[in-house]
Known about the structure:
Blueprint: H1 4-17, H2 25-124, H3 128-136, H4 169-177, H5 190-200
Amino acid sequence: MDTTQLETKGALLRQESTAVTVETREQYAAAGEWLKGVKAYQREVNDTFGPIIKKAHDAHKEAIKQRDRHLKPAEQAELTVKRLMVSFDNAERRRIAEAQAAREAQAVKEAEDERLAQAAAAEAAGDEQKAEAILEEPLHVAPVPVPAATPAVQGISGRSNWKGEVTDLRQLLAAIAAGAVPLGLVKIDQGALNAHARLVKDTAVVPGVRIWQERSLAVNSK
């Protein structure tokens, strides 16, 4: 496809735009007529490349569709097995944590029983001062080793993702207003804000929001 003429027209329009002046009513009207020519050029470009873009877009969509059709079964299979492994890992962690707590409690009890026995022996020997010192000593318990929750598999690693969920937006906004939490926890919906501005225009005051009218031009080459 030879697009030389289009390139020439586009370059000429860009050059002409640098010479446009709008300081009088006549110049304003002339600039408007010139913009119609720009719009006609844009339509010519779109008519030239539109079919090519559509064809490429359709081919791209079809390629993605075929790719996803082949990937979907594998992705579902992966998700199923991952859920099973995560469920097992969580159960193992709970089991080990419970066993760990039980072992630590048993170790503390044994250490306490040993200390009481030593204090009782000292008291039986008539050394009450030693018995009192034994009872006042901090209890020392050797750490209990913690086994791995799940076996290591090369190429497989676990991750922990912390997430947040808003359960009461008003409470969150109140905390932000009080400075208790960062302002960045909320994001302004610019589309909704603009829609509200179009609805109320300048008839209402929204706290913390400036509503104004932005002017622009629409060009019809016909």
